[in-house]
């Protein structure tokens, strides 16, 4: 018989990848807007980013955006993702594909 804690954990944590605490400057692109932010954690399947102006009023769960893990947009094209959750200062993304 499983405990309530085990059942709760399996329901809450539906991620396919292990998350690692990782704070680095990032840029979130949504439509024609650019938001400077920080990653809070990241995995092969997604990331949680945070900033004081988050979540942007125009951002909704299901929206597609791009996350670049640098503050200079010309350094990397970024990773496409779908917004899965919005918090008071957080945006959770599920990566659509991963560039190796």
How are the elements arranged and paired?
Layout (H helix, E strand, L loop, with lengths): L3 H9 L7 E2 L3 E6 L2 E10 L3 E5 L13 E5 L10 E8 L3 E6 L5
Antiparallel strand pairs: 1-3, 2-3, 2-5, 3-4, 4-7, 5-6, 6-7
Rough outline: globular
Number of strands: 7
Number of helices: 1
What portion of residues belong to β-strands? 35-45%
Would you tell me the overall average pLDDT?
A: 78
Looking across the biggest beta sheet, what order are the strands in?
2-3-4-7-6-5
CATH architecture: Beta Barrel
Question: Ends: how far apart?
Answer: 41 Å
CATH top level?
A: Mainly Beta
Low-confidence spans: 1-13
Can you tell me the number of structural domains? 1
Q: Percent of residues in helical segments?
A: under 10%
Main β-sheet description: 6 strands, antiparallel, barrel
Secondary-structure-based class equals: mainly beta
CATH superfamily: predicted glycosyltransferase like domains
What's the gyration radius in Å? 14 Å
Q: Give the ordered list of helices and strands.
A: HEEEEEEE
> What is the CATH T-level topology?
Thrombin, subunit H
